[in-house]
Amino acid sequence: MSAEMRACIEDCLRCHSTCLGMAMNHCLEQGGKHIEPGHFRIMMACAEICRTSAAFMLIGTHHHKHTCRECAEICEECAKSCEQVGDMETCMQECRRCVESCRRMAA
């Protein structure tokens, strides 16, 4: 496994943890636009695809390129949603870091 893949796995797992944690804690506690269905769903989708992409890379299947491509797309959408909602800088940063890592793995 390359160092670049190991870094991507770490980025995906960190993004998974951040999105899930912020959705279940920060967003639920803030309410309002933080729990609007579209925003909340993209956060949960982001957490799941990040976990899946990390797992595919750990398994060693060449299919990780497909999940990483989708992961980059969903993380980008999640970062934009978090930016629009506001007060979600940590999530935005982790999503954007994951976007870059996953794009490299999908190439």
Notes on the protein architecture:
- By secondary structure, this protein is an all-alpha fold.
- The protein is 85% helix and 0% strand.
- It is built from 4 helices and no strands.
Structural class: mainly alpha
How much strand content do the residues show?
under 5%
Q: Mean of residue pLDDT? A: 96
Multimeric organization: single chain
The largest pleated sheet is described as: none
The parts where pLDDT drops under 50 for at least 5 residues are none
How many beta-strand segments? 0
Order of helices and strands: HHHH
CA-atom Rg in angstroms: 13 Å
Helical coverage, percent range: over 70%
Count of helices?
4
Span from first to last CA? 16 Å
Shape: elongated
Keywords:
107 residues, mainly alpha
Topology:
Layout: H1 3-30, H2 37-59, H3 64-85, H4 89-106
Helix pairs in contact: 1-2, 1-4, 2-3, 3-4
Short description:
Helix content is 85%, strand content 0%.
